[in-house]
Each structure stands twice: as C-alpha cells, then as structure tokens.
Write a structure and sequence with these properties.
The chain has 12 helices and no strands. The chain is mainly α.
C-alpha cells in the first residue's frame, strides 16, 4: 500500500511511467549472494572507510545545508537525474531492496545515511553527499576540503562514480572524463 501511495504521488508530480526493461537484471542482483554496494566504502577501501566512520567526524548534513553556500549547484542538481534516482527505484517496486539503495540514495550502509523513505526521506535520491560523502567535516572546515570524496581527492571521487556507473547496469560512460568534468559545472552538461 505504501509503495502504491508513493507511486501515485510520483505520477501526479509528473515523473515518467516506469520502464521495466531491466527487471531480469534487477532480479538477478536482488538474488545475488553478494552484499549490497556501499559506494563510499568501495571507493575508500574497507580500512579507510572504517577509520573515517570510527573517527566520529563525519555526519550527513543533507543537500539543504549544502545549498546555503552552494546555491547554484543545489538548483542545478535539482534538474539532474541523480536527484530523481530514488523515484526510479520506487517506480520499479524496489524501494526496500537493499541492492538498489546504495546507488539510488545518499549514504545507504553508512552510519547516519539513508535507511528508508519513512525514517530518512531527506537522504532519498543521490544528493551532494551521495557522491562526496558526509558533509559535516566540510562544513566545520568552512568549505576548505573535508570531504572523504571531494574535489581535492579526485581519485576517490571518480571511484565513487564508477562504483554505480559500471557495466552491470549499462551505465558505463563512453567518455568518462567528459561526463566527470561536466559535473564541475552547477548544471551538469554546462561548461564549468
């Protein structure tokens, strides 16, 4: 019933009808014995991830906090597919499928990250911290670095992209560098 309510709300808001062409791949992923993907853990590596989370320095602030200093990026990303990633999962009926949540939400599997649309709706979709990691340290440093996957750590940031955008889902890039560089602009696709 809850999923149907979300689906109807999304239809009323004008989201496109669901496309179920990938159902076989979704089902294979869902039944896989592999644990769900946690992009931040995959990009940093197990040890660095564990150390960062144990430090107590990293907490999610949400994109609403990011917008206070980065308004152009906040507005630009509202027009980007990442900001609607969870809607695709809802439309496909997989809002509780943990194999989907790591790439369609912000911080799934990370302490303080997305857990469900009921308890952490502010972290649904792929927001700023979905790619950069928890933003509390960035805020504490007054926007001078502080992200686990920030622009000052491009190798980690690129790994964050490639954890989800890989050949599994035909979301690999013909020209990864061009796609990556397009996100340096406030509106992806514009020139930085």
């Amino acid at each position: 019933m809850r999923a149907l309510s979300w689906y109807l709300l999304l239809l009323l808001l004008g989201f496109e009808q669901p496309v179920f062409a990938q159902n076989a791949r979704i089902e294979a992923q869902r039944l896989s014995p592999n644990p769900p993907v946690i992009p931040l853990k995959s990009a940093l590596g197990e040890q660095a991830f564990a150390e960062a989370m144990a430090s107590g320095k990293y907490a999610f602030a949400t994109s609403f906090k990011c917008r206070l200093c980065h308004r152009d990026f906040f507005v630009g990303r509202k027009q980007d597919v990442h900001d609607h990633a969870f809607a695709k999962v809802l439309q496909a009926g997989h809002s509780e499928t943990e194999q989907c949540l790591g790439c369609h939400t912000t911080g799934y599997g990370v302490p303080g990250g997305f857990t469900s649309p009921i308890f952490t709706p502010q972290l649904a979709n792929v927001q700023c911290e979905g790619c950069h990691g928890p933003g509390s340290e960035h805020i504490r440093r007054n926007a001078e670095g502080g992200f686990l996957a920030g622009s000052d750590r491009p190798g980690i940031l690129k790994k964050m992209c490639l954890v989800c955008h890989d050949a599994r889902w035909n979301r690999a890039f013909d020209d990864f560098e061009a796609a990556y560089n397009s996100y340096k602009a406030a509106r992806p696709g514009d020139k930085p």
